[in-house]
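Help needed: design a sequence for this.
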């Protein structure tokens, strides 16, 4: 069949300690195409490592839900992670649940699903188009799709994640502004009196106000903790950018090395031309008669 569009979803986030054994289920999933790959009328999604899948379950007995689990469990209500919903996976907005070792299910509000834009097969974008069965297995196609999408996924994830978290941090800081401002006003009062008494000039007073605000913010425990955590996040984000760039470079090296192996294999398996001399053409009947007569002469 020819795939019309392919997309990737990213299941990521944190799990409670009792559900941490489900972490291998997290990661990038590629949407599978074709009628035979549907589950309860919805598309299925395969993890780039082939071991896990996401599928939809819906029956009279079971609540419609999206399941994440071992690939061999597709179609069954046997999930490592799940979320209630009877809509396409990309539109699911509920709270995910993860299974614990004792068989119970726990809410996993730290899990999130991010969807990345679709890629039209055969468009040349990412080099992952074409028909299945033209020498590439489903796993190879998924691997190629994963690599082609990872750059976009990384950029999108970084931009969206930073924007969302930055907005939340701004709100968190604003919640502490009133307390910090009150403390800063109390701290700057002596400087105001000195300024009104002409003991310090305007520049010195402005400097004292800035110092008072900075000190008040540093002494506010919740604000100081928030600022330190966000600073650490930006440092970690920069480190991940460096690591991702190294990963992309390594992927290019692996691709080049694989191409070299293929070329060497082709050369090794190529049939060597025969070094034996070509056999002489058969003698004519007349030549054979002359040879017999010569042999019979005394």
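Sure. Designed sequence:
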């Amino acid at each position: 069949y020819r795939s019309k569009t392919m997309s990737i979803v990213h299941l990521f986030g944190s799990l409670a300690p009792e559900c941490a054994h489900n972490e291998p289920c997290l990661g990038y999933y590629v949407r599978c195409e074709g009628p035979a790959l549907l589950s309860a009328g919805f598309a299925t999604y395969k993890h780039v490592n082939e071991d896990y899948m996401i599928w939809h379950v819906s029956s009279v007995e079971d609540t419609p839900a999206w399941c994440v689990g071992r690939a061999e469990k597709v179609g069954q209500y046997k999930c490592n992670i799940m979320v209630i919903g009877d809509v396409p996976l990309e539109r699911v907005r509920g709270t995910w649940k993860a299974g614990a070792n004792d068989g119970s299910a726990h809410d996993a509000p730290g899990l999130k699903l991010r969807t990345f834009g679709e890629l039209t097969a055969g468009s040349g974008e990412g080099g992952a188009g074409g028909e299945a069965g033209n020498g590439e297995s489903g796993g190879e196609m998924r691997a190629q799709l994963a690599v082609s999408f990872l750059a976009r996924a990384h950029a999108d994830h970084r931009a969206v994640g930073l924007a969302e978290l930055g907005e939340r941090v701004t709100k968190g800081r604003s919640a502490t502004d009133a307390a910090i401002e009150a403390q800063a006003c109390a701290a700057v009062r002596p400087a105001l009196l000195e300024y009104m008494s002409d003991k310090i000039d305007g520049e010195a007073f402005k400097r004292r106000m800035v110092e008072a605000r900075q000190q008040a913010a540093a002494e506010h425990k919740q604000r100081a903790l928030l600022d330190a955590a966000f600073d650490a996040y930006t440092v970690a984000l920069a480190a991940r950018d460096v690591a991702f760039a190294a990963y992309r470079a390594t992927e290019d090296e692996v691709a080049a090395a694989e191409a070299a192996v293929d070329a060497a294999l082709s050369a090794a398996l190529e049939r060597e031309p025969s070094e034996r001399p070509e056999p002489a053409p058969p003698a004519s009947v007349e030549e054979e008669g002359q040879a017999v007569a010569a042999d019979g002469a005394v």
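The helical segments are 138-196, 202-219, 221-269, 285-296.
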